[in-house]
Amino acid sequence: MTELTLYHRESCGLCHDMLAEIMALKSRYTFALTVVDIDEHPDLQARFNVKVPVLAVDDDILCCHFLDRKALLDLLAPA
Q1: Model-level pTM?
Q2: Domain around 13
Q3: Which of its termini does the chain have fewer beta carbons within 10 Å around, N or C?
């Protein structure tokens, strides 16, 4: 199963938009999603501060700011 991590902050409108777009795919694709508020982790806040939202697969960043829908669908599509 593909494991996605969304690094976000609660006060971020772009973050809420990306989360909604990802969740809309849940009914058609199988993946696990972990949502991490960077403001609760100083190391992540320093790393991703102005880049959020950041969508990562394992430790690889897939996209920042806006969902790269094509890249995500290519990743989630059955082989």
Answers
A1: 0.93
A2: 2-76
A3: C
